[in-house]
């Protein structure tokens, strides 16, 4: 009777000992290593010192040891009769080596991971989806925290649907994780002009794009301000928008799920007349971009032949990949709030990045429904409603007309010149068209993922093919499958291609310092800004030192403003393309001559890269 009991007791004791060892090993993972290994996946710091730094809120070794001793005593009490010497054998040195080795490998291998605290516990988060790995994998601790299982957990996380969806959205929105860079402040000759920038920096220190546009304007006006100190107070008033509107835009997708985006409209200045300015739908849209766009539009409208104020706005909504129904519901919700601030004598929006015929049609339709009239139709491309015959071409054609005027003053012409163009939207395509008409050789276009170069140059047939590709939302690399002399470069810009004239028509700050150096080395002599503020401040310095002549967008880009006002004021629906083009050329010539006169009045020579 006693023998089976004794044998069972011995077996039970051995089982208890095994359980204790397993519990201790598991405790080692959870408490000693688990706090760090369980910090599973995270957004990257790119900090090489990560492997040498202690993790946030990780308990010190002493407290962990005390808790471990308490747990050990509980296990001793529960497993009476077990040799206590076995319980005291903890691989302390091995434990520390495991933690150190694991952390070093993590820091070397996963630069995109960062440490943060979640519910009082330090965890490692993924930079893409901003979640830690335990939320995405089946085994929260792996094989007791072993290196191989941890790597498997990472692989599983990267293959999870949530992670892939987050990565897809990140790539679609170009919302990459970047470190905030300090504002580049250039030295000014005049203390008076410097005080204007200092005041703007103090008021809006985090609005990088707006501060950059202010610096650009103040530098251009430095001689004007130094001649008349009263302009300082004028500039201070000008740099504060008259009205800033920020509002919520709820909308429902095709699956019935509700989304909320943010809408913006900035009426910057109406001293000269009612506001005119674009609407931009893009994930990067924020208040700083809305202010810089409306400030630039104010100066552009003032330089045009018409008395107009400046405005701009939009939303962080991304129309790419959305159905017509989803875009319609968003535009209607957007207009439900904005319509009360619009009107022919208040503000009329026009198309910008992400806003085309479809979006403008939905916006205008909702405006008419809410306002009860259609006075002052929006200045933008239209289908089956009033509009000038070349409204969509006006901005792109105007850029080429302006470049031709500059070259004519230098006794040159566009014919035969190699031209690098960025972007592949409305403006870029119409720049290509008019360059071909003038005999130039446009060789590049680009999109968000790279650029396409055709060494033979584009012609009208090739442009039609490019438009077909864009309409079908295909990649520009499909072009190179048809034309053997062309090549598509991923994650690159076209500014290293040999060219005589550059037309940046994509977005703000698309040309940085290294791009400007590439342009200079490529033989570029003239840069015509198609987008507002396409060059960073550092890039502008490089171009000026290399004597590259820059045509600012506020002068070269007034074609769209001219066409919109011709449409609203003259309402001539029977213009031929030739009639409209002659009016546009005349307006561009007036703008160019006004710029020349101002440069001469304030002592700029035509040879100077700053004369425009």
From TrEMBL:
Domain of life: Eukaryota
Name of the molecule in the record: Uncharacterized protein LOC107794755 isoform X3
Organism encoding this protein: Nicotiana tabacum (Common tobacco)
Record lineage: Eukaryota, Viridiplantae, Streptophyta, Embryophyta, Tracheophyta
Gene name of this polypeptide: LOC107794755
